[in-house]
Each structure stands twice: as structure tokens, then as C-alpha cells.
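The freezer alarm interrupted the setup, so I double-checked each line after restarting. Inputs confirmed:
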Amino acid sequence: MATPNPDRRSERARHAILEAALELCQEHTYGGLTMEGIAKRAGVGKQTIYRWWPSKAAILLEALQGRSSNTLNFPDTGDLRADLRSQMTQVVAAFTDPMFAAYSKGLIAAAQSDPDIANAVVTSIIKPRVDLCIDRLTSAQKDGDIRDDVDLPAMVELLYAPLYYRLLLHTRPVSEDQVDTILDLTIAGCGA
Amino acid sequence: MATPNPDRRSERARHAILEAALELCQEHTYGGLTMEGIAKRAGVGKQTIYRWWPSKAAILLEALQGRSSNTLNFPDTGDLRADLRSQMTQVVAAFTDPMFAAYSKGLIAAAQSDPDIANAVVTSIIKPRVDLCIDRLTSAQKDGDIRDDVDLPAMVELLYAPLYYRLLLHTRPVSEDQVDTILDLTIAGCGA
Amino acid sequence: MATPNPDRRSERARHAILEAALELCQEHTYGGLTMEGIAKRAGVGKQTIYRWWPSKAAILLEALQGRSSNTLNFPDTGDLRADLRSQMTQVVAAFTDPMFAAYSKGLIAAAQSDPDIANAVVTSIIKPRVDLCIDRLTSAQKDGDIRDDVDLPAMVELLYAPLYYRLLLHTRPVSEDQVDTILDLTIAGCGA
Amino acid sequence: MATPNPDRRSERARHAILEAALELCQEHTYGGLTMEGIAKRAGVGKQTIYRWWPSKAAILLEALQGRSSNTLNFPDTGDLRADLRSQMTQVVAAFTDPMFAAYSKGLIAAAQSDPDIANAVVTSIIKPRVDLCIDRLTSAQKDGDIRDDVDLPAMVELLYAPLYYRLLLHTRPVSEDQVDTILDLTIAGCGA
DNA sequence: GAGTAATCGAGACGGTACGTCCCGTCTTGTT
DNA sequence: AACAAGACGGGACGTACCGTCTCGATTACTC
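Predicted 3D structure, all chains:
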């Protein structure tokens, strides 16, 4: 994400900037996030920010990755439904946390008008998690828990898209109940 | 959406503003849309815009409704899958049209930091279409094409959410193929 | 000062406008005087103002004339110095009254960038008073109280200009003492 | 006159702003002078103006001081009347120059509704010149050219006020003849 | 006494300028 | 050479008034 070059970079400034961005995003919502505000809060010159990040969304992205790297794993207990439920519930928890929800919504909103952000979001956040899920589904398919003709990437979308749908469209709040309903319908199907 | 009051309102100005907003949104993307730009293009004072709309998103919303009110119907040929496919394909067409996609993404992005917009999007765009879909599904459920215990609103989400997911997350392009996959998985289920 | 024509004019509106102008000039200083403000305070449409007056200064001018028409007289007791003192003291009183001072300063300020106002101020306020003074001085000259070679219009300026000087330049407050000093110096001269 | 602080200030911008203000004041009269216009002409952001000056009058004031600092001297040839005439003629020349007259009138007009401007005008323009004149008159009084009981500050007003009177009231044009008349009347007095 | 025309109140309209907030770049020491 | 600080040119913000322009709803003169 950096352009100039060296490792002469001040770790102190980097940390202060990421922290300031997270704090201000909570206080003012993503839309009220300002380069100038971050610089002031972090006690940093604006130039220092522009030197290392191309946009405020990029800062937030990096800040978020630092926070949530731990979530990167997918349980495999042998019970597919339980494993999916466990993982999806973690996502619900994140989307339900006001702070995390604000970051996520802000970042996805920014992605709509900045292809770089869009790309970064997919690559560094979505893709790794989707891949883990596909791995689990592949193993389930081998075990015969999923029909052979099921398109697994599409199935991942079917499972997670409704969570994003509620997060972004604000039709109804994301909730844990939703997870069970999604699992029921997706596994058993709706047809008679 | 209006605050001051009467019907002394100039239809000429209203039209010019909505048209200008649509045009500029195509040319500059939603992020580059400007109250000042709209005013200049429409040949209108800025105050006239602020008098009737609280935000640029509100303008776009009204402009969009004028354009797409025709889409409000849901076929019922007796063939559930065909009907769903037909309707979902229309959504894919809209999301695939660069202009319409730009409006939609911009509006949803704006909704992330403005509850009024969020509410207006749901009420005036999402809800009416979802309701029509639920009607169709209800009738299908009566006909025995859908299991009785299926939560229909959740099923609507299952069908449409993946389209929004790809539109907003930019993982893969929305496509007509997707519709068939969604229908397959949703109707038959993924379980063995 | 009126342009359209008839005497169909509403006396009620005329009065309300003049009163509103005077009131607002006191409250907000001349610079803060607004056509829109006058209209609202007077309970009058803006058009009604523009129909009868070309500028806010014109309104104020008319309002002032209605207030101070009484002052138009110049005493002639035979005692020149006493008569001048009496008249000049009246001017000091006016310039000392905060309300009247505000009007006067505002009007003269407006005259600096509007020749119509400048002309109206001279014609309807300054000139009549200067003429009366010249009359008194002429009679004094005949009586031998003023040297024959004295340019009377210039003498009027010598007497009154210092009052305007302090009013407009804000070097020192206008005061009654000033009158005596002016009279002393003007009548006796400063030379040894 | 400046608020933010340092000497990090751009001399280039300062100069461009002062020049632009003078130019525009000539072209559009003081009333048509605009912060936005100055910024555009000077090729400068508006903020840069607001950072260093509180009002357009303040800009003009500074611009004028840069231009006329040379006039600050008072001749002393021993001939009081000649010295006064020489100095007053310089003022007449300034008031007769359309550009300078425009600045002066605009500034004094602005002073009527802005105490800061009023104060700055007195302090930085009027006062220094009055003081020089008083010095000359004091020396004349010692020489016996002026009576001992004459109030010198009042005499200064008597000499100069008529020039300002004509400048601001627009009764008659300021002229060199006026200087002689003023000197005659002021030195010899008007009384018989 | 009914018809008609102009004035009235109200306030929307196309505009211009306001003074503020940020943007992203640039400049000036400091570490 | 990266840093904190912040001035710079610029663009958009949302507001306040400008002077013009409809709108009905009173008037008050004409027929």
C-alpha cells in the first residue's frame, strides 16, 4: 500500500494514524472522517499520511486488518451445519457491533466509487474468508453432505449474501436467528 | 420530501434538476455529483434545490423513481421458477446497465451514512418490490410449489441478496447465469 | 421618489415600511439593513417596496425627512453668535442621539457609492439648512457683524464641517463644547 | 491585523491580494469590491485572504498605506500660510484623484458600520497627519503667528474638515481655491 | 353594484457572494 | 530523509439577500 520506499518509516506515526482513524470513525461515522482530522488527532503532519496511504479508506482497511486478523479460521468438527453456524454467527457478531458495522459499511460505501478500495476489500477481507469457507464445503461435499452438482462458490454467496443484504440495505437488523433460517433454507431447499 | 410548502413550485425547475442530476451522475460517477454542478447544469439557483431536497441522494432517489416506476409488477404464469427467473433477470439487467448500476451503488453508499436516505431507499424502492415477490411466493406456497414451513421473506432475501452482494462487493460481475444457479440451489437445496 | 404612478398607493404599507426601516436601522446598524428584513417586519411584500423606492437608502431618507422636518428654521435674534450657537447646538444634539447618528452615518456612507443617494441627501437635507444659514449670515453681513469680503457659503462650511468631520471620522465625539470653540476661532480668526 | 501567526506567510500572495484589491476598487468602485473577486484576480484561495485580513476594508487600508506612506511630512519654511497651503494642496490633490478618492470614500463609508475599520482609519491614516500639523502649528504659535489662546487641535479640524465635508457630502467639488478661502477665513477670522 | 384593473401579501425563482471546511500539494524547520 | 506543522491554491458547502417573477385575495375606481 506504500509508495515512497524505505523502512525509515516511523512506526509511532503509523500506529497513531491507524488508531486515530478508528477512533474518529466511531465518533463521526465514516462520512465525517477527515484526513485533516486524523492528522490532528494522531499528532501527525498531513504529508505523513499521504506519503503512506492513498486514501482514508486505505487507512481504515489497514486498521481493520490489524484488528480482525484473528478471525481467520474455519472450524471443521465434522458437523457441517454446526461449523457453518459457528462461523456465520461470528460474522453476525461483527455486523452487530456498532463500531465494526460502521467501519464495514463505510468501507463498502467507499468501494462504490473507488475501484482500488473495492479491490483491496475483496482481496484482503472477503477473498480469504470465502476461500476458507469453500475449503470446508469441499470437504463436506466429499463426505456426501452436499450434493455433487452444487456450485460451491455460489453456495457461499447464498449463505453470506443475506447478511450483507441486511447490513447494507437496512431492511431488517442482522441477527443470529437469521443464520438458522438461512441454513435451513439453503440446505433443505424451498421447493416442495 | 418537501419542507417549505405549496404547489407554487416550479415544475420546470423540478424537471431540470432531476434531469441534471441523472446526467451528471452518469458523467462524473456518484461521488463526483455536486449540488453546485446540478444547479449550474439545470440553470437553477442552489437555494431552489435546497428548498425541496435535503441532499443529493434525495434528488437521485426521486429521479430514479420517475424512471423505473414501470418495473413494478410481478408475472404470475403459474410456473414459479419461470416467473422468478423473469423478474430476477430484470434486476440483473438493471444492475448490468452502467448508468443504473452507478445510481444504485451511489444511493446505497449514501445510505450507509444517512439514515434518511437508507429509509427512503427501503421504503420507496426495496419494499414495494419485495412485497410483490412475497405475494407471488405466497400464491406458490398455496399451490404447493413451496413447502409450507418456508419463511417467505427470508426466501426473498435468499433469492435477491446474492445479486446485491456481487453488485456492492465487486467479487464477480452480476450475470444472468447467476440467476439460474440461485434458483437451482434455493429451490432444490444444497443438502444431499 | 415614486415611479409607477397613482395614488392607489396603500398608505398603510408606506407607513409600515418607513417605520420598519427606522426600527431595523437602530437594531442592526445601517449595514445590516435588508430589503427582506424590512418587508418581513413591515408585513409587506418585497415588490411593494421596490415599486415605490429604488433603494434602502431612499427609504431611510424619506423616513428621516418625516421625522426631522420641524428643525427647519433659523433663529434671528440680532445676536449672530447666539443664533449660530443655538442652531449648531441642535445639530450636535442630532449627531449625539445614537439613533439619528446611525441614520446619518448610514445615509452618508451609502451616498459614497450611489450618486442618486448623494444627490438626494444634498438636495433634501443639506441644502435647505445651508440656505437658511446663508440667509442669516447675509443679514449679519449687512449689519456689519461679518466682514464684507467674507465668502458666506465657505463660512457655512467652516462652521459645520468640523461637526461632520468628527461624526464621520470618529476621531473625537461631537460635543457642545466644540461649537463654542468653532465659533471663537471662526469669528475672531486664529492669526495673531 | 493578522491572527494565525508566523512569518510562514507568503509574500507573493500578500502582494497579489493588495494589488488585486486596488485594481478592482478602481474598476468596480468600493461597493463592488468582493472577497471572491479579489481572490480570483490575485490567483489565491479565499481562505488565504480570511487568514490574514478580517474584512475587505482592512485589505484596502493596508494597500493604501503601502502607497501613500511617502506623504508623511510637513514642510516648515517659516512661512506658516505657505506651509499650510502646500500641505492642504496635497490633500486636495489626493481627494481629486479619482482612484484615491474612491478608496478614501469607500474606507470612510465602511468605517461607519465597522468600529475596527473606524479605529484603523484614525490610527493609521488620520492621526499621524494631524499630529504633524499640530507640530507645525505649535511652532507657529511659539513664533507668534498664532494667538496663544488658540486650541490647536480644533484649528486643525477647522482647516481640514471642509475638505472632507465636500469629499463626503458631495455638495461641491474639492478644489485648490477652497484651500485659499479656508486659510483666509481661518487666519483672519470672519468677524468685523 | 358588478366588472375590472392595479396594488397588495407572500414567497419561489435565477443568481452572486458570503465565510467555512477539506482537499492534496508545497514549504519550512526539527529530529 | 522522514517527520510535525501548517500555509497555500482550489472547489464545494449551505446560507443570506438581491431584484424579478408569479400567484390568489383584497381594494377602489369605471361603467
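Quick read of the result. Residues 4-6, 8-10, 13, 39, 43-48, 51 of chain B lie near DNA strand E (CB under 10 Å from a C1').
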